[in-house]
Specification:
Number of helices: 7
Radius of gyration: 45 Å
Order of helices and strands: HHHHHHH
Shape: elongated
Strand content: under 5%
Structural class: mainly alpha
Distance between the termini: 108 Å
């Protein structure tokens, strides 16, 4: 006696359970198939409508879509996670800066700190300017010409010797750099 393979399959409990489940889900599947059918019908109607096709064609042609543009878009999409991370960091910095600028105590502390660094520099600048003015006044007040013997005396002065050593070293370094 020959057995029907279909009947043998239907006797298995897991097949029976699957069939029951399939029958229970059948109304949902039918609705989904109808929705797919509606989408396909809509697509066919759009493809048959010459005006719609012409508008979509004009829209697509209005964009400069070529291989280079598509490659750039893909490259940009690949970099979006890193750009997002950088934007988040920038946002954190801006939030911090806003909070600092809103806090008068922090601004006062920063101003005092900056002032403690700049005051000595400003003071040295004032001293240097005063020195330059004094030298200028003395040079303009002196009317006698500079003589060769005066220059020879200057060469013995330690500050002149030190300055000349700096000039000589500067010339040597510049000569090495240019060669």
């Amino acid at each position: 006696m020959e057995t029907n393979p279909l009947l043998e399959q239907l006797k298995q409990p897991d097949v029976q359970a699957a069939l029951v489940s399939l029958l229970q889900q059948l109304p949902t599947y039918e609705k989904n198939l109808q929705a797919i059918g509606n989408v396909v019908s809509f697509g066919q109607a759009v493809l048959q409508d010459e005006q719609a096709i012409q508008k979509y064609d004009e829209l697509v042609r209005s964009y400069n879509l070529n291989l280079e543009t598509v490659e750039a878009l893909v490259g940009l999409l690949e970099k979006l996670p890193k750009l997002l991370q950088m934007i988040n960091q920038l946002e954190d910095v801006l939030d911090f800066a806003t909070a600092v600028l809103a806090d008068q105590q922090t601004i006062d502390y920063a101003t005092a700190s900056i002032q403690s660094y700049t005051e000595p520099v400003v003071e040295k600048g004032k001293q240097g300017l005063s020195l330059v003015k004094e030298i200028q006044q003395q040079a303009e007040a002196t009317t006698e010409p500079v003589k060769l013997f005066t220059i020879m005396k200057w060469l013995k002065d330690p500050s002149v010797q030190k300055s000349l050593k700096y000039v000589q070293a500067t010339l040597q370094v510049l000569n090495k750099k240019t060669n």
